[in-house]
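Duplicate of #3305? Posting structure anyway:
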């Protein structure tokens, strides 16, 4: 059986990660959280006192940064050097730093290379913003998952509250809108739907409905 590679792109809060994890379970393949890789870079940059917007400084750090992916008992772990930072990269300030550094070409090239290496070894579903357009343009399956800004804000609020992180709807909505703008206007591989990707608007869909919709396209193609 040929290797399965599924690209799932879309803006922040569209439900990509949750859907990708469900699909990975259903198909018994690995889920590669590409956003976690950029968050690891953001964490590294902040720890070293580097301004995420300082392109030259960030590019210099890309020459020495050591980000690795490990699958342990089917769970993805992100390492900086030998330190497992999987649980340290989910704070809002890390999310913002990840968005800022991802605008630098050197970061995107470095992370894309790492993602391709992982994709060569495993059956994968990857979610991000440029998987189908830049990282794996030849992926067997491509989907673009979106939702309204209000729906994405509500979902993100629930996620943060579950983690005990307090914020306001207005502040979070503004952050999401800014991130959308940054992601869709960056120089290299901006956020956009690949021409051959299937568009799914999850605004009024449950996670189960999104998962089954994506699986129905995959099953139809496999049949």
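Output from current build:
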């Amino acid at each position: 059986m040929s290797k399965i590679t599924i690209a799932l792109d879309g803006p922040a809060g569209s439900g990509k990660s949750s859907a990708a994890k469900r699909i990975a379970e259903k198909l018994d393949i690995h889920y590669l959280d590409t956003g976690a890789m950029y968050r690891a870079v953001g964490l590294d940059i902040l720890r070293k006192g580097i301004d995420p917007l300082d392109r030259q400084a960030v590019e210099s750090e890309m020459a020495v940064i050591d980000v690795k992916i490990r699958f342990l008992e089917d769970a993805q772990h992100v390492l900086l050097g030998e330190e497992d930072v999987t649980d340290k990269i989910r704070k809002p300030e890390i999310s913002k730093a990840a968005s800022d550094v991802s605008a630098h070409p050197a970061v995107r090239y470095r992370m894309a290379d790492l993602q391709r290496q992982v994709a060569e070894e495993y059956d994968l579903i990857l979610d991000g913003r440029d998987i189908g357009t830049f990282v794996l343009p030849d992926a067997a399956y491509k989907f673009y998952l979106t939702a309204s800004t209000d729906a994405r804000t509500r979902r993100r609020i629930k996620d943060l509250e579950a983690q005990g992180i307090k914020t306001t709807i207005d502040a979070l909505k503004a952050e999401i809108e800014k991130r959308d703008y940054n992601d869709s206007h960056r120089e290299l591989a901006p956020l956009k739907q690949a021409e051959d990707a299937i568009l799914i608007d999850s605004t009024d869909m449950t996670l189960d409905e999104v998962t089954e919709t994506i699986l129905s396209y995959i099953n139809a193609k496999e049949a």
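Confirmed duplicate; merging threads. The chain has a mean pLDDT of 91. The radius of gyration is 17 Å.
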